[in-house]
Write a structure and sequence with these properties.
This protein is an alpha/beta fold. It folds into 2 domains: 2-71 and 231-401, Alkaline Phosphatase, subunit A (3-Layer(aba) Sandwich), CATH 3.40.720.10; 82-226, no CATH class. The protein contains 15 helices and 13 strands. It has helices at residues 24-27, 31-38, 56-63, 68-71, 75-83, 122-136, 187-200, 204-211, 234-238, 249-257, 276-288, 300-307, 310-332, 379-385, 395-401; strands at residues 2-8, 41-45, 92-101, 112-114, 141-147, 150-155, 219-226, 242-245, 261-263, 293-298, 338-343, 360-366, 388-389. Strands 9-8-10-1-11-12-2-13 form an 8-stranded mixed β-sheet, with helices on both faces. Strands 3, 4, 5, 6 and 7 form a 5-stranded antiparallel β-sheet that branches. Helix 6 crosses helix 7. The mean pLDDT is 96.
Length: 402
């Protein structure tokens, strides 16, 4: 039996005026998803438990079958695992974004222009993070370069409580005054953020980016604190050998912590320019070499949602369907038995440009158990079926045993 999980990050949405009051899923031409929905089970699943923030961390843990209230210890430790940082139990980690802030003299008066600094390249970002480490790093705080705008800060013997830290993608185009770090233990963190602006604004990498018409990565932004994670292995939970294919450190880190195989794909960017064909090819190769389950995570719909790019969000769904899902399903038909799960991790509505905690549509197709499904895979048809999985972390077991 072969299992495919097609995780379309942030794909779920709400009707949007620029899309004729349709959602991107309703607007997109996605014949493969719709054909699977026609012969599979469609419904809604609650991937973000009450009381938890609607992030890709807790939501993807749920889809993978992990109860976030039991296993979740913070987002950045999972990303640290992907980078290869060997954390001590006393370490506290933070996601360190490279962002673009406006140029008001007072740091707190600035506005969050871009949470990802125009998708800064990993090569440019590495230079900047290593410069920040040189200037701000010490025996207590250490900066580690990651991928694109996503990096890590490790606080030796740090404090995990007493912080109120806001994800930068939640405050695009907003003044940062109300979102700067709050709490009794954030003084040093906020001080490093302020110092980073003075260090980065005239850095040669940023001056060159400005010449090319790109936004400068002129500040760090710290958030997503946590401690060393401890996930049970995916195989010990489900007796299934799994592989993860993603461009995002968070998903790679989850895979590493769950003892899944993490596959790197050249040209995988996390945006709509990602290497869709490469992800498809890598998944087929994993199945060929004997893996039971392949989890393909595509970030593009989420990034388009954060940027309010309606047409690109529609297009990203179409590209997933055309360049990844269709050829893999055709390949899997060579096997007698296979099953496909398609779902987002959380909604990223265009109207708010950030995540919500609403339930998301899911689609489960089994080649040996075809049923009368729905004509199209959308939020609307999923709700209309009445199928509802309240505890998202139970869906993986259901999918594997259905």
């Amino acid at each position: 039996m072969k299992y495919l999980v097609m995780l379309c990050d942030g794909m779920s949405d709400e009707p949007f005026a620029a899309l004729d009051n349709k959602t991107p899923m309703m607007k997109a031409y996605k014949p493969c998803m719709d054909s699977l929905a026609n012969k599979g089970e469609v419904g809604l699943v609650k991937t973000v438990q009450d009381g938890m923030k609607p992030g890709s961390d807790v939501a993807n843990l749920a889809v993978l079958g992990y109860d976030a209230k039991k296993y979740y210890s913070g987002r950045s430790p999972l990303e640290a695992a992907s980078i290869g940082i060997d954390l001590k139990p006393t370490d506290v980690t933070f996601r360190c974004n490279l962002v673009t802030l406006s140029d008001e003299p007072e740091y707190s008066d600035k506005t969050m222009i871009d949470y990802c600094a125009d998708d800064i390249s990993s090569q440019e970002a590495k230079i900047l993070i290593e410069y920040i480490q040189e200037k701000l790093g010490n025996d207590k705080f250490s900066y580690y370069p990651g991928v694109s705008y996503r990096h890590c800060l490790v606080w030796d013997n740090g404090v995990v409580d007493g912080h109120t830290l806001t994800p930068p993608h939640d405050i695009t185009d907003r003044p940062i005054k109300e979102y700067i770090p709050q709490g009794e233990n954030v003084g040093e963190l906020y001080d490093m953020m302020k110092k980073s602006y003075d260090l980065l604004k005239d850095h040669p990498v940023n001056l060159e980016r400005i010449k090319r018409g790109k936004r400068p990565a002129n500040s760090i932004w710290l958030w997503g604190e946590g401690t060393k994670p401890a996930l049970d292995s995916f195989y010990s939970k489900f007796s299934v050998h799994g592989s993860m294919i993603s461009a995002v450190d968070l998903l790679k880190g989850i895979a590493i912590c769950a003892d899944m195989t993490s596959i790197d794909v050249d040209g995988a960017t996390g945006y709509i320019d990602t290497n869709f064909e490469g992800k498809c090819k890598a998944a087929i190769e994993e199945f060929k070499r004997g893996q039971d389950l392949v989890y393909i995570h595509v970030e593009a719909p989420d990034e388009c949602g954060h940027r309010g790019e309606a047409e690109n969000k529609v297009r990203s769904i179409e590209l997933i369907d055309q360049k990844i899902l269709t050829p893999i399903v055709e390949f899997l038909r060579e096997y007698d038995d296979f099953a496909v799960l398609v779902c987002p991790d959380h909604p990223t509505p265009l109207c708010i440009k950030t995540h919500s905690s609403n339930p998301v549509p899911y689609l489960i197709y089994s080649s040996k158990d075809e049923i009368d499904g729905v004509s199209k895979f959308t939020e609307e048809t999923a709700k209309a079926t009445g199928n509802y999985i309240e505890l998202g972390y139970t869906m993986m077991e259901y999918f594997l045993t259905k």
